[in-house]
Amino acid sequence: MAKYKIAWLPGDGIGIEVLEAAKIVLDKLNLDAEYIHGDIGWEFWCKEGDAFPERTIDLLNNVNAAMFGAITSKPVKAAEAELIPELKGKGLVYRSPIVRMRQLFDLYTCLRPIKAYPGNPLNFKENIDIVVFRENTEDLYSGVEFNPVPEELRDLLLKISKPFSAFKDIPLDRYAISCKINTKKGSEKIICAAFNFAKKFGRKKVTVVHKANVVRATDGLFFETAKEIAKDYPGIQLDDANIDAMTMWLLKNPFNYDVLVAPNLYGDIISDLCAQMVGGLGFGCSGNIGDKLAVFEPTHGSAPKYFGQYKVNPIATILAAKMMLDWLGEKDMAVKLENAVAEVIKEGKVRTYDMGGNNKTLEMANEIASKL
Ligand code: NAI
Ligand code: MG
Known about the structure:
The chain has 13 helices and twelve strands. By secondary structure, it is α/β, with parallel strands linked by helices. It has a domain at 145-178. The structure holds 1,4-dihydronicotinamide adenine dinucleotide and magnesium ion (MG).
């Protein structure tokens, strides 16, 4: 029996191509793993009305970790679902399987390392080395949303919230409400994860990203929790910044930042900004990490316009595989893989289109594998 069971979730579009590339390097490393395919994505929503079928959930309950490619996600309303023959009459509304996966398996940490590998022509500046901890299950992504707004909710809000009176005369179908829900426990978990990481890897500063001066209840809770937790980590500086100012400071001086921690939405935004500073979507890798399961993925989507061409950059996914090796405790393999990626980037002989080259997805993977 193999040492590890890995769920293998290619998903849609280029997700399939980049996972094929990741498999090349993992095979070259001889990771003692059984890779088990799982169905996920748009295709299954259209066929079965479920983009994240029960059998895939069962699979994830029985593996050590998962590699996930990307999915095609569309905001389909019930009326549009009626137009898909297989789904007609079922009253279904599309929900992102990724958000569901994160909530179902409590993958509360979204870890995104942001590193400028020397020689990458896409680096915004050299020597950037930031790690983003994004809360992954709560906040504006909690899925509690209303459009149209139910009458009971409006009446309740009118009773208990003064500022809400500004909306009292708007017809219920002419506005929408999305709830930003942040819990003390959820905030503690992600903030502790960030501080533990800083401690383990000798990082000096944790910057909390928020907007507590305006969004006082939720972001206030997050920031206050960070202040409490920071007391337990005397060697590590607690820093904070408003999300809007943060986007500016990050561009101006990325070297001021070390570890960032943020609620879900702000974390999503800054991690994309950070990813662009070190090469963009072809380099952005991410781990969705819980206490029992972790799912590793490139941060990009299914890029339908490139699907079938095998031309996108697989480095993001290969770096996600490196993160998986770290999570599994295969430190030597992880270091070896990262060094191989760094070497190929530095040599600059093999480059995909985004890096200004003509090489294909699997050529890049084979070049990296040749260094292992
Ligand atoms: P996308 O990330 O799929 O692609 C946007 C553009 O980024 C591409 O057209 C391409 O120019 C570039 N790009 C992406 N990956 C690349 C790579 N590996 N190498 C080089 N260039 C790359 O975003 P888009 O087009 O907005 O969304 C397409 C679909 O993906 C949508 O249905 C969206 O909902 C979904 N999506 C899924 C995500 C996931 O599965 N985690 C994340 C983001 C979007
Ligand atoms: Mg994103």
